[in-house]
Amino acid sequence: MSRIASTFAQLAAAGRQALIPFFTAGDPDPASAVPLMHALVRGGADIVELGVPFSDPMADGPVIQRSSERALQHGVSLLGVLAMAREFRTVNTHTPVVLMGYANPIERLGYERFAREARAAGVDGVLVVDYPPEECEDLVACLRSHDIDTIFLLSPTSTDARVAAVGKLASGYVYYVSLRGVTGAGHIDTADVAGQVQRIRQHVAVPVGVGFGIRDGATAKAISAVADAIVVGSRVVLEIEEGGAAHGPARVQAVMQEFRSAMDQTGD
Amino acid sequence: MKLYDLPDARGHFGPYGGTFVAETLIAALDNLRENYLRLKDDPAFQAELAYELAHYVGRPSPIYHARRLTEKAGGAQIYLKREDLNHTGAHKVNSTVGMAMVARHMGKKRVIAETGAGQHGVASATVAARYGMECVVYMGAEDVKRQAQNVYRMKLLGATVVPVSSGSRTLKDALNEAMRDWVTNVQDTFYIIGTVAGPHPYPMMVRDFNSVVGKECVLQMPEMVGRQPDAVLACVGGGSNAMGIFHPYIPHESVRLIGVEAGGDGINTGRHSASLSAGTPGVLHGNRTYLLQDENGQIIETHSISAGLDYPGVGPEHAWLKDTGRAEYVAVTDEEALTAFHDLCRLEGIIPALESSHALAQAMKMAAHMDPEQILLVNLSGRGDKDMATVAAHMGMTL
Fold first, then answer.
1. Burial class for B369, CB neighbours closer than 10 Å (0-12, 13-18, 19+)
2. I need a labelling partner for B23 at 20 to 30 A (CA). Which of B13, B229, B254, B346 fits?
3. Which pTM value belongs to this model?
4. Domains plus CATH for chain A?
5. For residue range B289-317, what is the model confidence (pLDDT) as tens digits?
């Protein structure tokens, strides 16, 4: 069983949902990445999504664009991000790490080398924003052969046929993008998300995470009632932007605690 | 003649092209593809398009025998396909008219576009005005400053110009921002991409609309000179004017196809925009193609005196034509393009766009080593009125 699968199994047994923060590796500087990862885990994160910075983050809103630019100013590369993951693993061997980013840095490194080095660094899953299922059969095969989970996005506009196609390729979890638009945009409609997650579950066996538009504990709690995981990106990145290297870790830990305690509240 | 029917059903030209976008855009692209494929074979739509091209754009554009330029080059005869005579002064309007008509048939009330120097923005604002649609044009903040006249032109036509301050603040960032708008407003919005790049079906659709250029040439050349040219030349940034004139010639195997990229200060200086001549394959803006990128797969900044060629990628069909050898790609420097620009002004009374001047420069170079019986056909893709400030600045003058 992969580290991601066993994490979800343990959470399910306890009747809890996964809290998955995202931040851009190397923002505000490369040395902050590992302390930020540990702080997120201390605050209650179950899985950490590590963003690989790219010069042209087409699917991201201004908050994550800026974080990507800050990381790139420090010359953070895909191999650099893998080195951060490897360093995190020397201390933490239980929290799954998922790389999230764009296709081109992986194309440049080559699928086989990427899969091999990601595995060696202790990476558990990979989500490539601009690789829809039909364009990444080779990469999926490569990651599979190195026991790395392949995570895909689903959206409100994904047809049942596409949801089923993703269901066949996805492992670890699927990431349902709850809003039309880019990261950090708009407001989330809980009832709508509940219906969509139900629809996805008819075609997808792995857990369903929901992201885009989850900014506070109350929303996290509402969404976690209908999904298996919530993904928090822009809010975490904003805390890092405002807190910088000095206060970023404490601030993201506090955000995780806020979300975690809201999600774990019982009753109402 | 060999059958050429690319792209395949999923938009691939060999390993290039495709649909490399987030899941959030897939449904919109599927919808666009279905609508476009239906309209493409709809005689009523094609008749409407033909009418617009004839009466609004001013097609067919003539082919002109540039005798004095030929004489100066001293070899092969140089003919010019006069896309500069189109409404709005360039080939861009061929595809913006077509896409605005597709948008109208799809019931979209709002169009968006990205632009570098502003030519595609102007062509998009033009058709939006013509069809009564709202138009938003994304333009890099740096380009907004440098191209004040085109910004004003778009505003006159009723468009909103949004400066983009992310990344390198140029064309590629404007394209990113237009994609972000599209993914957010996809229900009522049509994205008019400015070149034969982007995710499927854009490279195919923009090519098809621009292919009117090559289709006319295939008929006009035999009428004028009794045969097809020995070579067809066109400048390549994203590559829409080149794809437009090349595509109908692909089955004419005796006709060489030569794409001319922006060599900037010279390929060896690293300051250029020659993705095919000096780049490597990768994924950007929804398709796999040749890119100018660093060793980590980050897109690098490009340079050309011609804003319309200043782009780090290139249409995926060009990548395929390069790999298969059906088309050849070369680069011409800023200086060489400027020399050709001045030659055409003085010898033929035609002020060409700096983009098109790259193709002219290559034609003059080649012609010198060819026989007078041989024929070169150059796509004069646009007029140079927009480049007055750039050329004047290069000559040490301010206007």
1. exposed
2. B13
3. 0.96
4. 3-263 (3.20.20.70)
5. 999 999 999 999 999 999 899 999 999 99
